[in-house]
Structure formats: structure tokens, C-alpha cells
TrEMBL record:
Keywords: Signal
Natural source organism: Actinomadura luteofluorescens
Keyword Signal in annotation: yes
Residues in the signal sequence: 1-17
Gene Ontology MF: a single term: peptide transmembrane transporter activity
Protein name: Peptide/nickel transport system substrate-binding protein
Pfam families named among the record's database cross-references: SBP_bac_5
Record carries keyword Signal: yes
């Protein structure tokens, strides 16, 4: 389920709005400044719960980041920075986090090591059914947290080298005793140490959070802007990006995010800061199940040669993405610059020799440019002589198709929001069992890559990078995947607001309102 959450969580209608954005060519009037300390920010959809262990969507992540702290966090550059823990050390099977002092829960209770351990053990407990716990401790693994007065140690049954970055996930937010005593209350009421506490909600529409005036901990970002924290933060569900732009113009929204060009109307507007950040990575995945034409490496290579990745990037993100040469971005740990030489080059003539008359079914999500990228793939394959058809679905239907084991497709653009900035989580989709039992969506059959992945997951830091290089290069040589491009999001700060953006998300604790405007 965890894979579904990460893959499925971007707003569907956001991309549908692409191409019909607001007016451009003339500067829009600056939105009014915030004067009452209340800042509104967009959500892609309803929040499912205030229980961190049940986090399953991008919008859950936004709300939980405001309400709960994690042991460690990422800064805007992708660097791990202290959270509730000020120092830490790890081995392949354990990690010990020293806790900073002076932290309190939203009910005033002082946070202790025992409380942190209890919260983590609830996350690790299979009975909790936490959808994303495998990102923290790895697939098929178990873990236990123990504590001293000022530290917590996590010990896993099997090594997983991404344990520490895994603790940055919203699902790893620390729940305070009031929430632990009555987990059902977390559906609508928060119990954390975060910068905000839940106040009220209109289910499916808006969620009002109140700032905790005593909050003085949490990640410290080098580029933290000046100003006052908002008194209240209102998270509004607005899934149409043109509507987001209209509400921003009238001052009803201060921090909207866009994946389309609907924000273009603000390009020349004063008083608005735009932060563009990669949020998802895209790659072409082939179905290698026996009986599919894409089980043949020659067919996969020809498909890769039929696609001009630069053109596809312009279609899926209006050209704002950057081409990638592996399963993620150069900023990820263990990035291998040598992989670029293994990415097949656009070669229409070579593609045409191999694809003439080959029947191919393309499926995809509509979250990028309303599915136009899927159409572009189909057109390229048809131009190469293949008998290609395309089926674009809403995001949840596409994910259900991939992970339900239907096997009714040959090619898909895989869209993955990699919050951990690590190659291990995304690598799970290319090894071991195929759906519905496992996550290997294309039934990739590459023993060398699978061995290297397992070595990376369990080895030392030095062994991890070497193994990940072998893993990805093996996938590329066998044309099991074609890396495409990043899919950025544009986060606007209007009305005198400012803040930091990490992995495409505005960080609630970093939001400030200019004093002159507040």
C-alpha cells in the first residue's frame, strides 16, 4: 500500500488544468497582504487522518508536517538536518538518536525518550498496518525501539541502510501520550510536538491549525526568512489549479502550488516569490511478463530509441523538468554520473526497424499535463511503425492497475515522489516479486540487478553506493527502465508570506509573515 500512497498522491485535476491556465502577457495585480496572521495553503485532496502511521497521500504529508516533528529532516538542499534528535549515529542494523531538550507536546507534556520509543514501536508494530513503514525499515523487516532518558535506539532484524533518512517521513512523526492512549482520536485531533496543533476542520474541504507560541525547536534552515509565524494555518482543498490562481489573486490563498502553467499570470507580479522544486521523478517502465512484446530486450531498446526525452519533458512539465539518467536526481545519495552513457539515445530510424507492426499498450496517469505525455509516447511508437494504443486513467485507477497484477499493459510512465531522496525506495519497484505479491511492477527479470539491490540495502555506506551503481547500470544495460525527467512543482508565496520548500512541499514550520504585512 505504501507504494500506492507515494505514487498516487498528486492531485489529479492539477494536471487537467494544464494548458488552460490564467492570462499571461500582462502583470496581474499584487494580491493583498495578510493582516490578521491567518495564512492559507493548498492541499491536493482531503486529509485522511492526523495519525502519522496512517499517512498515505501528499496532502497527509503536508498536514502531518505541521502537527508532528520527526527525529531528523531534510533541508531544501536535500541534506539531513536535526529534528527532535540533535545528533545520531548508525550501523546497517541500528541507529541511536540523541534527543534535544526542551521539547513539549501540544498538551504541555515534556517529551521523553520513552515516549519517542513508544511512538516508534507503534509504527513498527504490524498490527498498526502503517502503509509506508517499509520506507523506514525496508521490505519484510521488523524493528524495535528502546530508550534512555535522552536517547532512542532502533534495532532492526535485518540491515536497511536507509533507516536514518527513513525517519524523515511523515509516517515517522512522533505521537505524544494523549494520542497513544486513544489512537482513534488521531483521526481528527493531533497529539504531537509540531509547530501547529489541530483546531477544527471541515472534512474534505479545509483544516485549520493553530500555531504553538512556545514552539522553538524543529529543523533550522540556513535560508530561514524573517517575519512572524502565522497565528493560524488553514489548509484548503483546491484541486483545480486555475481556481488556485484565482483565489491567490483575491487574497484567499497565500501559498498555492502548481504543476501546470496556471501560475504564469503571476510571473510579473510584485510581492510574490516562486520556488520551483522537483517533486516527482519520471521513468518509462516496461512490462517484462512472459508473453508481452516488451519481454524482449530488443523491443524495449527500440521503444527507448523511439522516444525523444527532451520533447517528452516539454510535454509533461511544460519544459520545467530536467532530464535524469538514473532512477532519481543527481542530489540523491550514491548518484552515479556514469549512468548517463547507458541511456539509449533517440534514434527514430533504429526504432522503426524493430517496432514495425508490434502491438503495444501504453497506460498512464493523468497527473502530468492531463496525460499528454502518455499520448506523446503513443505517437512516438506509432511513428516508429508500432500498433500502439494508449489508456490514460485517473491516478488512483492507474496505480490500482499497476499493483493489482492486471498485466494489461506494455509500457507506462512511472511517476514517483521520492521523499527520501534515496535510490533504495524507488529500487523496490524493479526487484523481487511482481504485483500483487510484490512491488516489481514490470516483472523485471534481472538477477544481477536484484543481487546488487540486496547488497545495497544491507551493506555498509561504501558498499551501498557501489552496489547501487551496479544495480542501476545493470537495469540500464538491460533496458529495464528508461529514465525520463523530473516533474517539478511551483510553490508561490504571496501576501507577504515566505518559507522553505523541501521536495516540492512548503514546510509549515518555516512559514513567516512579513511584520509590515502582519
Amino acid at each position: 500500500m505504501g507504494h500506492r500512497a507515494v505514487v498516487a498522491s498528486v492531485s489529479v485535476s492539477a494536471a487537467l488544468a494544464a494548458g488552460c491556465g490564467g492570462t499571461s502577457g500582462s502583470a496581474a495585480k499584487a494580491p493583498p497582504n495578510v493582516t490578521n496572521g491567518v495564512v492559507s495553503m493548498t492541499l491536493d485532496g482531503p486529509v485522511s487522518s492526523y495519525d502519522p502511521t496512517q499517512a498515505s497521500t501528499f496532502q497527509d504529508s503536508v498536514a502531518l508536517a505541521a502537527l508532528y516533528d520527526t527525529l531528523v529532516a531534510f533541508d531544501p538542499s536535500g541534506k539531513l538536518v536535526p529534528g527532535l534528535s540533535d545528533t545520531w549515529k548508525s550501523t546497517p542494523k541500528t541507529a541511536t538518536f540523541h534527543l534535544r531538550g526542551g521539547v513539549t507536546c501540544s498538551d504541555g507534556t515534556a517529551l521523553t525518550g520513552a515516549m519517542v520509543a513508544a511512538s516508534l514501536n507503534r509504527l513498527f508494530d504490524p498490527a498498526t498496518k502503517a502503509p509506508l513503514v517499509r520506507q523506514a525499515i525496508g521490505p519484510g523487516n521488523s524493528a524495535k525501539a528502546t530508550s534512555t532518558a535522552d536517547s532512542v535506539t532502533i534495532t532492526m532484524a535485518k540491515a536497511w541502510s536507509d533507516l536514518v533518512p527513513g525517519m524523515t517521513g511523515p509516517f515517522a512523526g512522533i505521537v505524544c501520550p494523549s494520542g497513544m492512549k486513544d489512537p482513534s482520536s488521531l483521526r481528527t485531533k493531533s497529539a504531537g510536538t509540531g509547530a501547529f496543533v489541530s483546531e477544527s476542520q471541515v472534512t474534505g474541504s479545509s483544516y485549520t491549525l493553530t500555531r504553538r507560541p512556545q514552539y522553538a525547536w524543529g529543523p533550522a534552515y540556513a535560508a530561514q526568512t524573517a517575519g512572524e509565524p502565522p497565528k493560524k494555518l488553514v489548509l484548503k482543498v483546491v484541486d483545480d489549479e486555475n481556481t488556485r490562481a484565482n483565489l491567490t489573486s483575491t487574497g484567499e490563498l497565500q501559498i498555492p502550488s502548481f504543476t501546470s502553467n496556471a501560475w504564469d499570470r503571476f510571473k510579473s507580479t510584485g510581492g510574490i516569490t516562486v520556488r520551483t522544486s522537483p517533486q516527482s521523478d519520471t521513468m518509462l517502465v516496461f512490462n517484462e511478463t512472459v508473453g508481452h512484446p516488451t519481454a524482449d530486450r530488443g523491443v524495449r531498446l527500440a521503444i527507448a530509441q523511439a522516444l525523444d526525452r527532451s520533447v517528452l519533458n516539454k510535454v509533461q512539465s511544460f519544459g520545467s523538468g530536467e532530464l535524469i539518467s538514473s532512477l532519481g536526481r543527481p542530489s540523491y545519495e550514491c548518484f552515479d554520473s556514469g549512468s548517463n552513457a547507458l541511456v539509449p539515445k533517440y534514434d527514430a530510424a533504429a526504432a522503426a526497424k524493430a517496432l514495425k507492426g508490434v502491438k503495444l499498450q501504453v497506460i498512464g496517469t493523468n497527473i502530468l499535463a492531463g496525460g499528454a505525455a502518455n499520448d506523446q509516447v503513443m505517437s512516438a511508437l506509432q511513428a516508429a511503425g508500432a500498433t500502439a494504443t494508449v489508456r490514460t486513467m485517473d491516478n488512483q485507477a492507474w496505480v490500482s492497475d499497476l499493483f493489482g497484477g492486471k498485466n494489461d499493459w506494455d509500457v507506462t510512465i512511472f511517476v514517483y515522489g521520492n521523499r527520501l531522496s534515496s535510490f533504495l525506495p524507488v529500487g523496490q519497484f524493479f526487484v523481487h516479486d511482481a504485483p500483487p505479491k510484490g512491488l516489481n511492477i514490470g516483472a523485471t527479470n534481472n538477477p544481477e540487478a536484484a543481487r546488487a539491490y540486496d547488497q545495497a540495502a544491507t551493506g555498509s555506506a561504501e558498499e551501498k553506493c557501489a552496489a547501487l551503481t551496479t544495480f542501476q547500470q545493470s537495469l540500464l544495460r538491460n533496458v529495464d527502465v528508461l529514465p525520463l525527467a523530473t516533474a517539478p512543482v511551483h510553490v508561490l508565496f504571496a501576501g507577504g508570506t515566505s518559507g522553505s520548500v523541501v521536495n516540492g512541499f512548503a514546510v509549515p514550520a518555516s512559514i513567516r509573515v512579513a511584520k509590515a504585512a502582519g
